[in-house]
Every structure is written in C-alpha cells, then in structure tokens.
Amino acid sequence: MFLIRADGNEKIGAGHLMRCMTVAEELAGLLGREAVCFVCADADSGDMVADAGFRTFVLNTDYRNMESELPLWKRFLGDCDGRPDSAGNVILVDSYYVTERYLEELKRFGSRVLMDDMGDRAYPVDCIVNYNAFADPEKYRSLYRGTDVKMLIGSRYVPVRSQFRGRMYEVREKASNVLITVGGGDTDHIGRRILKRLYREDRELYFVAGRYYPDLDEVKKLEREHANIHVLHDVKDMAGLMLKCDAAVTAGGSTVYEMAAVGIPFVCFSCAENQEALVEYIGATDTAYAAGAWHLDREGTLERIEELIRRLLTEREMRMLYHRREKGLIDGVGAGRLAEKLACRRVSAGED
Fold this sequence. Notes:
By secondary structure, the protein is of the alpha/beta class.
C-alpha cells in the first residue's frame, strides 16, 4: 500500500496536495489506483482528493499538530488495505508541520518518504525527496552521511502534471495577454492588488482564482466593470490557459515549474519564506524575471512586477530568451521518474 499524508486548505493553499496527487497519478499507473490511499487532516483536503478519484482517510485533526494524529494510524491502515501490519507500506509525507517524533513513530507502519523543500536538517526517514532546481546534492550527502537514506534530489524529479507535457508556448509578435496566479489560497490578498496594478485598457488580464481564493467576489466585481479582465476559478486546464497568454505573474511555488515546462515567460515573486530560495534561484540564473519577496517588501515587489511585465510585453526578444531558458529547467516527466523510484520500494539504497 502506498499512503500519502498531505493537506490543502484555504490557509496553506493547495500546493502540497496538488504535487502529491500528481505523483499519485503516476503511482496509480504503475501499481493500480487501489494501491494508493491519501491521509488528510480535514474534509477540505479529503474532498479535493476525492475529486481526483483517490481513496482518502480524513483524520478530523489539526493539520498543524501532526503528532496528535499518531494514535489513529493503526485504525486507518486497517481501512486502507484490510490489515494492520506494515509489510510493504510506503508512506509519503508532505507537510511543513512534520516533526522528528512523528516520523520516528511512522516507522512502525512502513517505509517513510519525506518531501523536503528546505534541506536544513536531517530527518529520521528512509527516503528524502527535494526536486527543486536549487537543491544541493552535496548538502544532502553531508546531512545524511553515515546513513542508508535514499536521496532523490534535483529538478529531474519535478512532479508537473501530464497536461504540461508536450505543449509549447508560441512567442507571438505582439503581446497583450497576461496571466496572473498566486496559488490555491491568498490569505494576504496579494492577487487583487497585482490585478489592479497591472490593469491597462490595451491588455487582456486572465486572473486565476484558486480553489481556496478568499477574494473571489471582489475580483469578480472588477471583471464585471472591465471587459478585458477575465476571472477563472479553480482552472482545470492550466496549461491551455498559459498557451493563450503572452506573459505571466506567479508566486514562487510549483506553478513556476509548470510555467517553465510550457515555456511561457513569467515574473515570479515569493510571498513566504519557503518560496524565497526558488525565486532567488530563478533570478540568479536569469531563467525568468524575479521581482523579490512580497512578505518583506510589498510596495517594492509590486513596482517590480509592474515594470517587468511591461518589459515582457514590449520586448519580444526577452520573451524568446526566457522561453528558451525556461524549457531547459525541467523535462516535464519528473513525476513519472519519481513514482518509479518510489514504487520499487527500494527506499533505503543511498543516493540516486
């Protein structure tokens, strides 16, 4: 049994759950859909998984206090595969609220795989995954030296959805269509400020309101007032929308990799500490435009977003340059590559 412990809600957004569902789709193709089961803290997360057609066990616990759910594991393992023993179980955990004790206790129920975006400490696991382009394999070798922890590190494992494979952005002569997305939730109300700042009569703005977006009524009001503002809620074909646009603005989460897979030139920014490293990497490698850290400098970041989008729309050569560079960041098949490594159950064989 392959168990995936992840959450998504209006406070933390949907990024963790979405990337896990991408991996789950690949696992289902290898092992069968019945072999994959999600474990979520709340009904919001469970509903999102159910919409994707996966089984789920909802704990009805606080996603911020993962240790409190440990007594429930034996019970729901019986529900997931009909037996309480841990033989053959692999447990993928994806949460910033995970603790060392939690992972230690999970050892009783199966092999432990952790999605780790930070790389700032060693965890008691059997396999560690950090697919970020900025992830340093040498740092992980140092952290886990003397252990048999399997390490799946680097952008060859980026889990982008299948819709982003084999679809190519067109660098058009004239550019006016702008995509704006800030993730599944937006508790700091960033999106509506960007939308208002980028508005021009000669632009078509496509604003993506995620599943948990809190300001939907307000941006819908802007849409009614302006014929060139288009608000799209809980978009399913994100790749198709990207192909329709000439440039994009995105927060520094997994959407950065999706945009790179398609090759649409974008401006990214971080809206939390855990997004800083990716945005800084994008800017330092000149893969796309980086506008800075919203959570540290709101007005400055907003001004840079405005100016950089102006450049992308007016300078076709920059759109061509960033299109080429982004396509070199990932190959789009990382989810399948990651699933194959995890499905073989060899999660304690050292570095890959």
